[in-house]
Write a structure and sequence with these properties.
The protein has five helices and four strands. Strand 1, helix 1 and strand 2 form a beta-alpha-beta unit. InterPro entries: DCC1-like (IPR007263), DCC_oxidoreductase (IPR052927).
Length: 129
């Protein structure tokens, strides 16, 4: 099973993050769905993700990951130097997540909301659920 990334479809930072991941994921390991979409809601329910999570969510074969754990596990599959960030999983989760939460709690204020997402090319659109 490939990884599935659930993201906030209204957040500019989240949209840019998805574009970044696509650009650095030449193996197309990841597929994507907005948390607000029907598919996103069904996946949240199926994997019993807690409600009102302020995080991107990574779903892999062995379960789901939130906050810094999700972000760093995503780095493991990216090309280039981004793989190095995966080793930050060695830092205790409460410390990692405190930094993640600062950004997550301010992301809409700092980066704004989007009314519409860019339309991906047909090749990229296959990666969206």
């Amino acid at each position: 099973m490939n990884g599935i990334i659930l993201f906030d479809g209204e957040c500019n930072l989240c949209d840019k993050s998805v574009q970044f991941i696509i650009k650095h994921d030449p193996q197309a390991y990841f597929r994507f769905a907005s948390i607000q979409s029907e598919i996103g809601k069904n996946l949240l329910s199926s994997y019993m993700v807690p409600e009102n999570v302020n995080s991107l969510i990574l779903i892999e074969e062995d379960g789901f990951y939130l906050k810094s754990s999700a972000a760093l596990r995503i780095c493991k599959h990216l090309n280039g130097v981004w793989k190095v960030w995966y080793f930050l999983l060695l830092i205790p989760k409460p410390i990692r997540d405190s930094f993640y939460s600062i950004i997550a709690n301010n992301r809409l204020k700092w980066f704004g909301k989007t009314a519409a997402c860019l339309l991906p090319s047909p090749d990229i659109s296959k990666r969206f659920l």
